[in-house]
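Structure ticket #2291
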Amino acid sequence: MSDPEIEAMSAVSSAFSALEDEARARVLRWAADKYGVLFGPTIKPGNQIDHPTANANDADQQLPGEVTGVASAQSAAAYEHFADLYAAASPTTKQERVLVAAYWFQKVVGQETFQSSELNRELKHLGHYVDHIAEALSANINKKPQLVLQIRKNGAKSQARKIYKLSGEGVKVVESMITLGAQR
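Resolution: structure written out below.
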């Protein structure tokens, strides 16, 4: 009886042997995103915790494609215009476009929360208006882990103004898009 986990590791090892380090990192990031895997601390023998971002200055400790807090702050500060951020992230779906616009307001502009109309106004200026933006936001809310959080609703009707914010995972997704865009 064969072990599917061992077979998968063998296949990955065979596939990676022909790739350069940068290509391996791209494949690992793709696989982690596709299968919803988050890299966190690992426990070494003797209960010593090894976290991949324990020392942001030590490149060997950082996961491929991971954006540290220092890099995150530098990334947000580097964009003078929304168009610069949008081009760097290169979103391809409505949900990604909404995330990038939300990142702009929350991390670059410094707003704690945002409304869908603000996001669409900026996207419209670039020619990337999102029809049914509430659906795109809902799709990001319904993902596991959630990428967007609804904070409150102003008004009693279904058409009431909703207030949103990016979750920590939502911020990480956009920063990963920016990192991947820089490597293209």
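Closing remark: The first helix runs from residue 4 to 17.
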